[in-house]
Amino acid sequence: MNWESPQRPAELTESRLIAAILDGTFPINSQLPAERELAERLGVTRPTLREALQRLGRDGWLEIHQGKPTRVRNYWQEGNLGLLNAITRDVDKLPPDFVTQLLEARISLAPDYAALAVARHPAEVAVLLASYRDLGDTAEAYSEADFELHHRLTVASANPVYTLILNGFSSLYRLFGPLYFSIEANRRHSQVFYRELETAAINKDSQAARAITLRVMSESLQNYHELNSTLPGGDL
Questions:
Q1: Does 89 fall in a domain?
Q2: Which residues of the chain have pLDDT under 50?
Q3: What is the pLDDT of residue 231?
Q4: Is 227 exposed, middle or buried (0-12, 13-18, 19+ CB in 10 A)?
Q5: Which tens digits make up the pLDDT trace of 139-178?
Q6: Which one of 20, 52, 84 terminates a domain?
């Protein structure tokens, strides 16, 4: 049974406007049509449109000033975490290098939150990783486990900002994760990472956790590039 609630009119309108911004219908720095015209084009009431516009303004998509045309912001420079979560839901509209950019960001962030997690909650990290010895050898199992690991590391780091950032692209991670882990070598690579990080946690060695994570995240980016180059069109 599908328990997911249907989108409210304002949420659906918001999604349609985001898609129009991402596909260039309303490009960066352009002005949206007047409220009456835009509501008619979208087939919604003006109150519904206003609610959607306010949500988009809050997340950094739009610049709204009373009595002035609504401007599409340069969302890559003026957006926030809410925008990141929204943009990853529309995979077809993502820029070609977006996944690479996320992986590069992970290289910068993951070593820090892994080191903090091992410094502050080493036993918890070790217990989790010990359970990974019995992972089912499937792409789906590794994808879910890998996201769980990074999520648990951010929580154990005791810095909620890391968790919020990671949650911002959870849907994209779960989409591309099974593709990445469909390659047996990538599953073996991550299994080595889990064992090494477990040893660092057992030894309460946060600096080793940092170094291991930095190395493995960098190698994972290279593995992604190799996988991407083998696909039709060279784009996951």
A1: no
A2: 1-4, 232-236
A3: 52
A4: middle
A5: 999 999 999 999 999 999 999 999 988 988 787 888 889 9
A6: 84
CATH number of the domain encompassing residue 195: 1.20.120.530
> Is 1 domain-assigned?
no
Cα-trace Rg, the chain = 21
CA 185, chain centre distance (Å)? 24
Helix (H, G, I), strand (E, B) or coil at 14: helix
Which residue is it, tokens 């002035």?
68
3 within some domain: no
Domain with 124, as residue range(s), is 95-234
Based on the domain organization, do 75 and 118 belong to the same domain?
no
Residue 80's SS3 state is coil
Inter-CA distances, 111 with 137, 177, 196, 208, 210, Å: 26, 19, 13, 10, 4
Pair type for strands 71-72 and 62-63:
antiparallel
Q: What is the pLDDT of residues 118-137, one digit of tens each?
A: 999 999 999 999 999 999 99
